[in-house]
Sequence to fold (456 residues):
Amino acid sequence: MRNFKLSRRRMLRGMAGGASVAVGLPILEAMLNSHGDALAGGAALPLRFMTWYWADGMVIDRWEPQQVGNDWQLSEQLMPLANVKDHVSVVSGMQNRSTNIVTHHEGMSGFNGYNFEQAGGFNTNAGGPTIDQRIADTLEGVTPIRAAHVRVSKRESTDGDGGTTYIAMSHRETEGGGLVAQTPQVNPQEVWQLLFGEFVPKPDDSELRTSILDYVREDAGALRGNLGTKDQQRIDAHLEGVFELEQKILATPPTCDLPDLPTATNTDSGGVEPLSETNDAMARLIAYAFTCDITRVATFQLKRFVSATVFDEIDAGEIHHSASHQGPGNATYQAGVTYQMQKFADLLEIFAETEDLNGDSLLDTSIIYATSDCSTGASHAVGRQPILLAGHGRGYLQHPGIHYQATPWNDNHNNPNGAGNMSDVLLTCLQAFDPAADSVGGGPLESNTPLTDIVA
Fold:
């Protein structure tokens, strides 16, 4: 069966109630060249990219590792990353060189390398396309969906912050030069429908309550007959995973912020958001989308900045943004930073356990760039910006990860004149997809110098 070749774009197809349904496939041996290191047509194996955002900064003394280089040790607030430490690099002491300062909004510069545009008061608009969209431009037409955008907490701002920098962490540049905010989805069922064409069952749609897999079973059976044993096993495992995820999502009442829906359809219980469950569902949806090559780009936002999110799962009892204003010594704020690192670790562990091809995990084949909107929440400082890079992008980034420190540790932790432009990290990520790219951003935040220290 090894001579049978299969297109990477092959999908399982069927009909449901007169409508076409399709399920993507994982990468199979039948899609590869004879050496197994490229697709049959000669194209490189998929490389994925995701940005991950946490809000309100960190506690520098508890977040930044004390050691630099290869021998760095997990700090107190990075301890949740213990199981995936080798897949993570820490970049500390970098400067967000924004010259427009409003508080929190300048955090957008960490994702695009531009100053924001003032829209009056605490309303600002993004000043340029974000790194995920720059990378999506290099992959235009390669996957069915350009990029996926998700957010976990549904809570909004308590202080009236607005503009596109508050709406979304991803902004796409149009042909006319304008920017369009890519609003993230907060409902896992809607993300499922977007990525996989799944129906959201209604009480009177008995036919559509049947699993989507039932409609492609005939096509799957025909395909299995042309595949080798390993590929048959891989398809079986993949479809079983799709089925389990489908059942998990459909068994959970949808979270929905449309005002005309009854509150009984929201998954909150007693005003408490199911953050871990939603975080897990979103991570697995993106993992499936990556392995099925539905998309290779995603953005993941745990919560909005200045939002009213409370981390009830750790008995925080206070809005995290409010706690951040109490200073680095506030125990609730400290616990909230560690909690956010735990949610990041949960996502990375899902990527680590998701097989892509011949034992490669999604952490082997992805680059995940994570940062916050400030360094310290109480002062809104951006002089020592925290950055995490996870995954090693098919050998592009150093593995095991390192701690690169741009500005040496000293008493003036938020020195705005310190070394290191955080846009250098953005350019490094972009060059993994477009080696010819020579710049990211514009104005005082522009970078023409990738951070080569983190490259393998």
